Amino acid sequence: MTKNSLRELYIEELKDLFSAENQLTKALPKMTKAASSDELRQGFERHLEQTRGHVERLQQIFEMLGEKGTGKKCLGMEGLVKEGAETIGDDFEDAVMDAALISAAQRVEHYEIAGYGTVMAYAELLGESEQASLLRETLQEEKETNEKLTELAKAINVEAQQGDFEGGEEEPRKERRKTRKAA
Ligand SMILES: [Fe+2]
Question: How many other C-beta atoms can be found within 10 angstroms of the C-beta atom of residue 56?
Fold first, then answer.
């Protein structure tokens, strides 16, 4: 079927975001479990609550449109979640793991910010102002989450870096870990 209207594209992209948000509700608890910093864990927990709200807003929009949100899998988010899972499976020191989790989470936020910015613009053009304002609320929360992650990274990245020099004259921690493992 040829999709020849902006409205159809709008609905397709909403479905994509609906799939993305649902995938994220499953991935965030795993990221929370893998995080060591209390602040980062709380941040992930809070964003899980927000993400459930994002799913609800999209459901509201589908109701307004008389459409269903199901039937599309967001492959972009699938890839981001897979990369995140790879990170979690890596053998990182706590602070390095936290830094890597922030990196994965910020990729997710940027992806969502792009998606919501686009559908919000479509909604405005299509005269769906109520939907546009729901999408704007979510977009705002994604942006705030991204900014909080940037803030958290400031301390956590430094902590992760300290692992490289720990022990003064000693060899870097990474080397010591290798030795420990070999022993
Ligand atoms: Fe979201």
Answer: 13
